Amino acid sequence: MPVVYLALVYLLAAVPFGLVITTLYGGDVDVRAAGSGNIGATNVARVYGWTIAVPVLLLDALKGLLPVLLAPFVWDAGLPWQGLVGLVAFIGHCWPVYLEFRGGKGVATGAGMMLGLAPVPTLFAIALWGAVLGLTGRSSIAALVATAGLVGLTGFLAFGALPFAGLLAIGILVRHTSNIGRIVRGEEQQVVRGVRWNRRATGPSAEAALAQGPAGGDASEPVWRERVEDPLKGDDEGGAH
Fold first, then answer.
1. Complete DSSP assignment for 44-73
2. Which residue in 143, 158, 176 sits closest to 83, CA to CA?
3. Is residue 94 part of a domain?
4. What is 135-186 written as a DSSP string?
5. Phi-psi region of 16 (alpha: psi -120 to 50; beta: other; left: phi over 0)
6. How far apart, in whole angstroms, are the C-alpha atoms of residue 38 and residue 236?
7. How many Å apart are CA 38 and CA 50, to the nearest integer?
8. What is the span of the domain harbouring residue 178?
C-alpha cells in the first residue's frame, strides 16, 4: 500500500497545472515557449500575469501539502514517512513523466511539503520570500534566500524535519542553476517591480508648481514671444500718395 500511494503521489504531482490553467484560461502562447520556458507560477506570471499565476501557485503548493497531510492515514510511520511522501511530490512536480521530465522549479510544491512537516518555520520562510520578492522583483532570488532561511529556521524550530528541508534545498538549488547563472550575469528578469529606495521625485516642488503659468514654466515669462508690428507704421514711414 505505501508503494502504491507513493506512485499515486508522483503521478498527481506531475500534473502540469501551469500548462493546464494557461491552456484553458490564458491565450495562445505556450508558457513552455515564452519567458523562461518553465511551467511554474513564476513564468506563468511573467507571460500571463498574476491573475492566472496565483491559482497555479496554490495548486502547485497543494501538490506538496495534501499528500503529506494524508500520508498518516495510509501508513502511520511518523515524520520520515511523511517527509518521503513530500519529496516524491517535489520530484513529480519538477520531473513530470507527462512532459518528458521537464517540470517546474519546485518552490511552491516544496513550500507545501514543508508546510505539512514544519508549519512554523515554513510560514516564516514564506514571509521572507514575499519580502525579498518585493525588494528585488526577482522570484529566483526570493526562492533561494527563503530556502536558505527555511533550512536555518527548521534547524532551530523543527529539528526533526531538518533532513527533509536540507534535501529540498538541494533540489531547489539544482532546479535554479540556470537562474543563478543569469543572476550572476545580471540578466535575470523581474516578475514584479521591486521597491526603489531613495528615489527622488522628478516633478517640480509644490512652490515651483504654484509659480508656473497655465502651460507650465515661469509665469513671469510672456506666453507670446514674437514682436508684433504696427500695421499702420509702414504707411506712415513710406508716406501716403
1. HHHHH-HHHHHHHHHHHHHHHHHHHHHHHH
2. 158
3. yes
4. HH--HHHHHHHHHHHHHHHHHHH-GGGHHHHHHHHHHHHHHTHHHHHHHHHT
5. beta
6. 83
7. 15
8. 2-185
pLDDT above 90: residue 101: yes
Is the Cβ–Cβ distance between 35 and 43 less than 8 Å? yes
Evaluate whether residue 231 is within a structural domain: no
* pTM of structure: 0.80
Q: Is residue 199 part of a domain?
A: no
Other CB atoms within 10 A of residue 143 CB: 26
196: cell is 526603489
How far, in Å, CA of 50 to CA of 191, rounded? 9
**Residue 221 resides in a domain:** no
pLDDT at residue 34 above 70? yes
Number of structural domains the chain divides into: 1
Beta bridge partners of 218: 212
Find out whether 190 and 150 touch, Cβ atoms under 8 Å: no
